[in-house]
Amino acid sequence: MPKARQIYTVRGVESAPRATGKAAREVGRHLVTDALVRRARDAVSMRVDALRGALAQRGVLPADAPEAGAVVEAFERSYGRRPLRDNAGGTMRNSSTWLFAVAALLRPSTIVECGTFRGHSSWLMAEAAPDARIITFDVMREDGRLRDRRIEYRLGDWSDAGDLEILPQGTLCVFDDHISHRLRLEQAKARGAALALVDDDYDALTLYATGSPPVPTVAMLTDPELAAGTCCEWERPGKQYAYTVTEADLQAGRDLIAWTERMPDLTAVNRYVAQAPMTLVGLR
């Protein structure tokens, strides 16, 4: 039997510093051939364009919103020079794409983020929406947290911010802090917000995919087959969790949520780290 032989060439290159955790599966791994890079970007642009069309139908797309291709090109430029190359435990590339795209398309006057972590997501939104006032909250101190003059960093929970009891028109709320989506949407609506972007929007069938899902999630609040009294139980190594859906949850979903747009999963395009479900919510 003939020996198997290598049929592609390999040459040594100077690699970027090694990353840790999930980031190790992305940092330093990318296409180089120009034609293939263009094809991959076109595949992402097609999905961003579909989102752009959906936002236009919802009546929330500004007249001066950029075209999808321009959004993707701008994202690539910004992401390529991001200060945090290793954002293990935070927003990875595919979710970063949608975070950037939503901010760039909506052109919000103000962005209020709950869940700063190391500061990558707020930095990325400052790149996407340079004219927006960006305020980010986190209840935890983080060593090495990125600081950027375009962003207001606050230690604590946004519910304690008296100056944000009435939000400016055109505010986008971004929730990525593992706190109940129902609670966060109630707070956003009470402050006059019309749009909220939520991360970790796992449905009742996939709550085990993250260690601390923000139950009840938007996906749960809008699930027509999820009945009040359903006990959602799931396991992760060494722990079993449970959450019982209430009629108040389901009613809150009906009262709070006018529409939702779920961000398409880009894993099929690039096989990077699986994207956490991210959903844009139009509040009633």
Question: How would you describe this structure to a colleague?
Answer:
It is a single chain. The chain is of the alpha/beta class. The relative contact order is 0.13. It has a single domain (23-203, 249-283), classed as Vaccinia Virus protein VP39 (Rossmann fold, 3-Layer(aba) Sandwich). The protein has helices at 34-58, 68-80, 93-106, 120-128, 181-190, 218-221, 247-256, 267-270, and strands at 110-114, 133-138, 151-155, 171-175, 195-198, 231-236, 239-244, 257-262, 279-283. The strands form two sheets. The protein has a seven-stranded mixed sheet with strand order 3-2-1-4-5-9-8, with helices on both faces. Strands 6-7 form a two-stranded antiparallel ribbon. A hairpin with a 2-residue loop joins strand 6 and strand 7 (239-244).
Key traits:
284 residues; alpha/beta; Rossmann fold; two-stranded antiparallel ribbon; globular
Question: Layout of helices and strands, plus pairs?
Answer:
Elements (H helix, E strand, L loop, with lengths): L33 H25 L9 H13 L12 H14 L3 E5 L5 H9 L4 E6 L12 E5 L15 E5 L5 H10 L4 E4 L19 H4 L9 E6 L2 E6 L2 H10 E6 L4 H4 L8 E5 L1
Parallel strand pairs: 1-2, 1-4, 2-3, 4-5
Antiparallel strand pairs: 5-9, 6-7, 8-9
Please summarize what this structure is.
The protein has 284 residues and is α/β, with parallel strands linked by helices. Helices cover 31% and strands 17% of the residues.
